[in-house]
């Protein structure tokens, strides 16, 4: 067995030491929740009667308290394609629970917004804070104290992080996340991009664009590009919170159903008690999500070219478990993690092609064998992370796991000894403008350094107006400020991707610099994002003026305004643009006003929680 890479060992140890006081307090908290907190046995007769009043045939079992009652927290809605399959999951879960003597109830629903619907629209201002709303909704669902285990039904961008943050407050309960899988492949990704760029140039109309988009996003299941939703599923595998290999099996298949059934059976086996006695195989969520699991999540992101959004979500998930990670940790882990996968937008194939090539089983096995993942984490499976290096199959209708000896497509998936790149492609940039991240796994190395004049904008719509007017036909760093969590909720700026791609294709040297987010599917245009501190409140990005020379360099990790220091010192920050009032964003004013830095997770609720608890 290969020893753990020394850099990974060093970073992990640094995180453990940095987190030690908070982590100990968190573990004490969940131990009290298990032993003396609110649980089903502490409920009064009236409480308990309310809890099982509508449970039909399950009522006698729930009433005795002798078997696990599973709480289902669901993000089902039928507008969001990835979550539409969840509509029928609760009944299937209840049947599977009865097979092992357990019961299940839907504990609650959480919101599940679709960034694909709100992308580039005013509703995107609510997107990031939907994560914290989901965490709060999850806590409300589990506060009824009726449950000894949790099943989380969620897939997409903010939903999985939100479910985890909420569930970790009840970290004494074993928890398994259940995906529903990606939709079958539709229109080829290159063709979709071509039509989008033609539309941005005015060469095709809305009818042609809608036809292409409808052929891309065409059925039930997760979108098939490798953005935040599918990066979530990858992370749940490398953290050991799925049944092994569950991430990318299509909806509606028998294998998908058997993996869900297996998750229910497994959850019933890992509670804190079994047959009235303490369970030696007790696997609470708060112990599964430890420092090593968080490091595995970061390494998985780097090895697969995953979403930049997790530079915000992983720190937030970690904080909920009493663990502190920062972008320096991300950068050092990226430097030693080889890129094993090229999934669109970092390659031509989608997640279905990735899964067919060997998928997560191959990636995890390769990383384990190379000493690049922590094998000895507490997973929800039977052993450790070794179980996740095999893929699920059905043989004679029985669910089995088998080895993936080699990649089935070297253009999609490569071994650690022959990677696409020696590093993971997520860079930390630091300079007189602050700290930010850049994903370069899909960026041509010739464009890792851009030095060009700034064009300053306060909204992405202003950028598109300038593009259509021909004002950006030059080498340029497009600066979009007042996009941070306190300013407007930190929306994704994916709407800019086609226009910036057109400028780059015309031969100009182009980069984006913003205190907002880019899509988790960030692609070929260099984008320095999540800049902290943000413009609102005095971040240096607010001092920039049109024509200032900027240097954005992923090679040296530098981000600087090349402005005379005396001039820079005298500059004043401009006022923030007036906010719109047409989406309900004003309901989230409390969230905006109390959000912290992107590097810490941009979470108002965790900041507030740490004011009440000694974290």
Strand order within the widest beta sheet: 9-10-14-13-12-11-15-16
Overall 3D form:
globular
Rounded to the nearest angstrom, the distance between the terminal CA atoms is 37 Å
Q: Report the structural category.
A: alpha/beta
Query: How many discrete structural domains?
Result: 2
Outline the biggest β-sheet. 8 strands, mixed
How many strands appear in the DSSP assignment? 16
Helix-residue proportion:
25-40%
Strand coverage percent? 5-15%
Rg to the nearest angstrom?
24 Å
Structure annotation, total helices: 23
Assembly type of the chains comes to single chain
- Mean pLDDT over the full residue set: 93
Low-pLDDT residue spans: none
SSE order and pairing:
Blueprint: H1 6-35, H2 45-52, H3 59-64, E1 69-74, H4 89-99, E2 103-109, H5 115-118, H6 127-142, E3 149-153, H7 159-168, E4 175-178, H8 189-200, H9 206-216, H10 228-238, H11 254-269, E5 273-274, E6 277-278, H12 285-288, H13 291-304, H14 310-320, H15 327-336, H16 351-356, H17 359-369, E7 390-395, E8 398-403, E9 426-431, E10 434-439, E11 449-457, H18 460-468, E12 476-480, H19 485-488, H20 497-505, E13 510-514, E14 527-532, E15 549-553, E16 558-561, H21 565-570, H22 589-594, H23 604-612
Parallel strand pairs: 1-2, 1-3, 3-4, 11-12, 12-13, 13-14
Antiparallel strand pairs: 5-6, 7-8, 9-10, 10-14, 11-15, 15-16
Helix pairs in contact: 1-15, 4-11, 6-7, 7-14, 8-9, 8-20, 10-13
């Amino acid at each position: 067995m290969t020893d753990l890479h020394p850099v990974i060992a060093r970073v992990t140890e640094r995180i453990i030491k940095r987190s030690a006081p908070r982590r100990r307090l968190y573990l004490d908290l969940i131990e009290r929740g298990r032993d003396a907190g609110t649980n089903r046995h502490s409920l009064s007769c009236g409480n308990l009667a309310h809890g099982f009043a509508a449970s039909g045939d399950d009522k006698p079992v729930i009433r005795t308290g002798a078997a696990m009652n599973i709480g289902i927290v669901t993000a089902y809605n039928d507008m969001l394609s990835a979550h539409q399959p969840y509509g029928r999951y609760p009944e299937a879960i209840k049947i599977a629970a009865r097979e092992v003597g357990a019961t299940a109830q839907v504990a609650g629903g959480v919101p599940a917004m679709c960034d694909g619907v709100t992308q580039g629209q005013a509703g995107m201002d609510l997107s990031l804070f939907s994560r914290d709303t989901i965490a709060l909704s999850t806590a409300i669902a589990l506060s009824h104290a009726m449950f000894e285990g949790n099943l989380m039904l969620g897939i997409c961008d903010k939903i999985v992080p939100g479910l985890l943050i909420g569930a970790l407050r009840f970290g004494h309960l074993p928890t398994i996340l259940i995906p529903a899988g990606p939709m079958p492949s539709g229109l080829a990704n290159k063709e979709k991009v071509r039509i989008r760029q033609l539309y941005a140039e005015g060469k095709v109309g809305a009818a042609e664009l809608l036809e292409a988009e409808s052929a891309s996003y065409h059925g039930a299941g997760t979108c098939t590009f490798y953005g935040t939703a599918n990066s979530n599923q990858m992370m749940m595998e490398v953290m050991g919170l799925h049944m092994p290999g569950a991430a990318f099996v299509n909806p509606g298949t028998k294998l998908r159903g058997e993996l869900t059934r297996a998750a229910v059976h497994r959850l019933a086996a890992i509670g804190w008690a079994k047959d009235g006695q303490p369970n030696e195989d007790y696997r609470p969520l708060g112990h599964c999500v430890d420092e090593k699991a968080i490091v595995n999540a970061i390494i998985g992101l780097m090895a697969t070219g995953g979403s930049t959004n997790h530079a915000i979500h992983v720190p937030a998930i970690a904080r909920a478990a009493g663990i502190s990670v920062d972008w320096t940790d991300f950068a050092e882990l990226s430097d030693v993690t080889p890129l094993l996968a090229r999934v669109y937008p970092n390659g031509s194939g989608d997640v279905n092609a990735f899964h067919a090539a060997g998928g997560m089983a191959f990636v995890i096995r390769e990383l384990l064998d190379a000493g690049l993942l922590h094998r000895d984490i507490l997973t929800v499976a039977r052993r450790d992370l070794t179980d996740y290096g095999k893929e699920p199959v059905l043989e004679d209708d029985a669910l089995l796991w088998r080895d993936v000896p080699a990649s089935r497509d070297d253009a999609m998936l490569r071994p650690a000894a022959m990677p696409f790149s020696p590093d993971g492609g997520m860079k930390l940039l630091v300079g007189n403008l602050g700290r930010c991240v850049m994903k370069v796994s899909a960026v041509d190395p010739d464009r890792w350094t851009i030095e060009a004049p700034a064009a300053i904008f306060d909204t992405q719509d202003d950028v598109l107006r300038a593009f259509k007017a021909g004002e950006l036909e030059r080498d340029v760093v497009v600066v979009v400020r007042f996009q941070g969590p306190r300013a407007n909720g930190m929306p994704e700026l994916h709407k800019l991707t086609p226009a910036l791609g057109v400028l780059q294709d015309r031969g100009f040297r182009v980069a984006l610099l913003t205190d907002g987010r880019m899509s988790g599917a960030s692609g070929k245009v260099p984008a320095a994002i999540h800049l902290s501190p943000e413009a609102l409140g005095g971040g240096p990005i607010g001092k920039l003026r049109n024509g200032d020379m900027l240097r954005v360099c992923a090679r040296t990790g530098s981000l600087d305004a090349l402005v005379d220091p005396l001039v820079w010192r005298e500059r004043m920050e401009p006022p923030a643009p007036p906010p719109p009032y047409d989406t309900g964003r004003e309901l989230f004013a409390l969230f905006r006003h109390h959000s912290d830095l992107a590097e810490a997770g941009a979470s108002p609720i965790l900041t507030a929680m740490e004011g009440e608890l000694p974290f």
